[in-house]
Amino acid sequence: MTTAASRAAHRDAPRRRRPDSSSPTPTPAPTPTPSPSRWAFSFRVQLALLVAMAFAIPAQLYLAIPVADRVRVAYGVDAASAAWTGAAFSLAYALGFLVFGPLSDRVGRRPVLAGGALATAVTTALTAAAPGLGWFLAGRALQGFAAATFAPVALAYVTERAPAARRPVALSLLTTGLLGAGIAGQVYGQLVTEYADWRAAFWPTAPLYAAAAVAFWRLLAPGAPGAPGGAPPAPGGSVRAVAATALTLLRTPGPAAVFAAALPVFGGFVAFYAVLERELRLTYGYDAGGLLLAQAAGAVGLLAGPLVNRRFGAAGPRALALAGYLISASGLLLALVAGIAAVPEAVIGAGVVFVAGTGLIVPGTVGLLHQLAPHARGTAGAVNTFALFAGASAGQLAAAHLGLRPMLAVLVAATLLAALTVATGTRTRTRTRTATPAGRNRNRSRT
Question: In angstroms, rounded to a whole number, what is the distance separating the alpha carbons of residues 379 and 381?
Fold first, then answer.
């Protein structure tokens, strides 16, 4: 009986292993992902955090404008030496972009943003404690290098994570923060130098940056774009491959034109307010309150960027960038005429037009590089941001040697030349990039 039972079991075994064709095959449960509305809300929170830090972190560059004179007095140096208060920061800042933009392609955006904010907190505290000018400038350079983790990586994060339809507005808001840092840094520095020891322009912000590091780590999405569940980032190329990509972009007419045209953007912004602040104080006798109002007036122009992007973003990034250059040049030309006529209030008002145009240039050029270099966005963004802040460093140094009217004349010419460079250098390649897929689809449909 035992043998018969075992034979019966043996005969039945294959039938028990066959799946029942009448019942559906079980499938593994799908990995839960956030609903679109929940993920959209989450991105709005992330964008708000990034915009807030766009005001706070790059402000360390611009507060050097009102603080430089106090540094000159404190260390007994001339104005040209004191100008390195901003230039030391901005040079290291620009070089850092070439490191941290590609690095974020390899390790992810969140680690670079969080680690960079923590490093900025430490170096800011060390800068405030510097015992002499040499140590102070070294601290400023380290501070700038650490702060360079923010701008290119934040721009890349928003470009990758923002919904396509809202990407221009999101980039414009982030750009508004980066430009608003110029106003916020100057206003904060002016308040500190007027009512407190100038070192207070540095050390109180260190805890803010440390808190930002925690917020970045907890709130930003980990992993690769489009994988909110936390998939690991796709590894980037080697350092040699990144350098080769950057050199290729510099030799490619379209991206190279955008990079060249980026030099006078933030350079003009820094130089304009540096010479304006000195002119208002020394020539027209503006006190601290008047200087604060002059610097804060530029904030009105920052409102134009998001509004124009929301209304006319469909015109395309190239049109947006060109409009920004022409509006900036118009504002600078008005300021030059007002400076020749010795009407300081008109110079301040023209600055609002200039800032409004600048607020359109950066999201326009970022979107343009998105089209021109779709397979090297991280490297292209890093090189472009390097050009922006290398120009800011040059603008700080040039403002120490030129007066208001000569500086404005130079900036008008540089801005118009940049507009011409973008107009002639990107026209054909933009058409090719945007028209080729459609043409290919039409050709395929015909065949």
Answer: 5
Contacts of 44 (CB under 8 A, 6+ apart): none
H or E stretch at 402: none
Task: With 0.85 as the threshold, say if the pTM is over it.
Answer: no
Q: Distances in Å between the alpha carbon of 338 and those of 5, 34, 266, 292, 331?
A: 107, 55, 22, 20, 10
Q: Dig out the tokens for 43 from the structure.
A: 């991105």
* Per-residue exposure over 116-139, b if at least 16 CB sit within 10 Å of its own CB, e if not: bbbbbbebbbbbbebeebeebbbb
pLDDT, one tens digit per residue, over 276-305 is 888 888 888 887 778 778 877 877 777 776
The tokens 């959209």 sit on which residue? 40
pLDDT tens-digit readout, 350-373: 988 998 888 888 888 888 888 888
The whole-angstrom separation of Cα 214 and Cα 118 is 8
Distances (CA, A) of 363 to 320, 367, 388, 394: 8, 6, 12, 22
